[in-house]
Write a structure and sequence with these properties.
heterodimer; A: four-stranded antiparallel beta sheet; B: five-stranded antiparallel beta sheet; globular
């Protein structure tokens, strides 16, 4: 049983570019949440997708957008990248039937 | 006031001793509480969840919750060098891990 998988694992982008990160949830899970973790900080909630819609959103600008597909996988898109967007981006999957969230291995994004 | 507060540490504990990690939260309606372990450069790994007042034990780990005091803790008995990591406290204000608010984490070092 595959856990939560994310791709790519590492990425280097230039300021102003756009990036797409991908996540496949754990088998049996239908909810995907995205978090941003800056160095030395706890993860910060970006948004959550359920039934292909954004259900909740944290305090992030509209440059951050996402999508969920019918197979429950999800994408995180960030436009007009800033140096401050450099972070570890984490995907967590969960299910309304369960109460725990499990994280993928993360994508390390570096903006130069 | 931060929503979830942890002492950033580092907390240094000798091998075989009990490590005690503490977390306070500000939202009185919080319902779900989680402890994640994060090794350097890796993603958070769920180690304990607790939803009602009292203690919950799982192997060498015990989570303690006091909703009246808005306090949750994690005890690690018989600490091992492999327990050296950052421990993240996460809180959700609804049933389940639908939107997690994290503390900044406590860095724990177990000294052989």
């Amino acid at each position: 049983d595959a856990g939560v998988t994310q791709s790519p694992t590492h990425l280097i982008k230039t300021r102003g570019q756009q990036v797409t990160l991908r996540c496949s949830p754990k088998s049996g899970h239908d909810t995907v949440s995205w978090y941003q973790q800056a160095l030395g900080q706890g993860p910060q909630f970006i948004f959550q997708y359920y039934e292909e819609e954004e259900r909740q959103r944290g305090n992030f600008p509209d440059r951050f957008s996402g999508h969920q597909f019918p197979n429950y996988s999800s994408e995180l898109n960030v436009n007009a990248l800033l140096l401050g967007d450099s972070a570890l981006y984490l995907c967590a999957s969960s299910s309304d039937r369960y109460t725990e969230a499990f994280f993928g291995q993360g994508t390390r994004l570096t903006v130069v | 006031q931060k929503e979830v507060e942890q002492n950033s540490g580092p907390l240094s504990v000798p091998e075989g001793a009990i490590a005690s990690l503490n977390c306070t939260y500000s939202d009185r309606v919080s319902q779900s509480f989680f402890w994640y372990r994060q090794y350097s450069g890796k993603s958070p790994e769920l180690i304990m969840s607790i939803y009602s007042n009292g203690d919950k034990e799982d192997g060498r780990f015990t989570a303690q919750l006091n909703k009246a005091s808005q306090y949750v803790s994690l005890l690690i008995r018989d600490s091992q060098p492999s327990d050296s990591a950052t421990y993240l406290c996460a809180v959700s204000n609804i049933q389940g891990a639908q939107k997690l608010v994290f503390g900044q984490g406590t860095r724990l070092t177990i000294n052989p």
